[in-house]
Amino acid sequence: MLISFWHRNDFQPGLQLQTELENPPQQKAISKDPFTVAVNSVNYQIQPLYDYTLYGLVVSYAHHDGDTMLHKLWNDHLNTTDVCVVWSRTAFDLDLNDYSFWNGQFTCNIKTSDIAAWARFDMNQLSNNHLLSNDPTLRSKIDDISVGDQIYIKGWLSEYASEGGGKRGTSITREDTGNGACETIFVNEFDILRTSTNPWRPAMYLSLFIFLASIVYHFLSPYRP
After folding, report:
1. Chain centroid offset of residue 173 CA
2. Judging by DSSP bridges, how do beta strands 183-194 and 126-132 pair with one another?
3. 3-class DSSP state of 106
4. Handedness of CA 90, 63, 178, 47 (dihedral sign)
5. DSSP alpha helices (H): ranges in 43-131?
6. Does the pLDDT of residue 104 top 80, yes or no?
7. I want to staple 83 with a disulfide (CB 3.0 to 4.6 A). Which of 61, 68, 157, 214 is the partner?
8. Could you tell me the fold of the domain covering 18-198?
9. Residue 66: per-residue pLDDT
10. What's the per-residue H, E or C state across 147-200?
């Protein structure tokens, strides 16, 4: 079980990538009035800045609960998920198993112990995306993502603010780093183009089921002194 858990997010050899992932995200400045949406009885004002289209390979993600941690403090139920993706040469040419990716509260992190692998990685072909949606269908589709999935997102790079909470902006370039370098996307379309087929995940769930079943069997079996 521990082995399958450790390898559950491995990238599979011979990964077949959609041709759309060869291209960087596309954005176009727009002039659109702000609008208001509500999630969990909280109103949020959205100010779209750019049309935005992204095709990417998921390397890490974090689903958010507006009732916990900083999202609770900021009364933020709109930011359903952060998803970190790569594209272009970084998706097609590198062995991503040379790197570790993980999401914090609002960040995507990467590390490797291989100096040569680090030199090959292009940070301008990675982005962490704060996904916003008040649409239950879109939120449900976003909830289904896994590491290794190939995804499509279309929406608006946006600023947003909540009642009684903070205001959040967005990056408008793929070449920035550090605080404020994440893209904030109000999602209009979302699709998983190709799902990851990592065999370690079903093995992990099967071993977990067997482990739990053995515990239940142990406690329900008749006692024999």
Report:
1. 18
2. parallel
3. coil
4. positive
5. 69-73, 88-92, 115-120
6. yes
7. 61
8. OB fold (Dihydrolipoamide Acetyltransferase, E2P) (2.40.50)
9. 56
10. CCCEEEEEEEEEEEEECCCCEECCCCCCCCCCCCCCEEEEEEEEEEEECCCCCH
> How many Å apart are CA 154 and CA 55, to the nearest integer?
9
Instruction: Enumerate residues 6+ apart whose C-beta is below 8 A from 4.
Output: 200, 201, 203, 204, 207
Cβ contact 154:188 at 8 Å: yes
- Reported as a pLDDT band with limits 50, 70 and 90, residue 74 is low
CB neighbours of 8 closer than 8 A, spacing ≥ 6? 198, 200, 201, 204
Range name among 100-109, 137-146, 190-199 with the lowest pLDDT average = 190-199
Q: Is 74 helix (H, G, I), strand (E, B) or coil?
A: coil
Q: Which amino acid makes up residue 170? A: T
Across residues 186-211, what is the average pLDDT? 69
The Cα 133–Cα 131 span in angstroms is: 7
Amino acid at 55: Y
Tally Cβ neighbours within 10 Å of residue 79. 21
- β-sheet bridge partners, residue 46: 35, 160
Higher model confidence: residue 19 or residue 218?
A: 19
Domain extent listing, the chain: 18-198
Closest C-alpha to 190, from 116, 128, 135, 120: 135
Angle at CA 187, nearest 5°, toward 121 and 149?
A: 45
- Token pair for residue 175? 């070449």
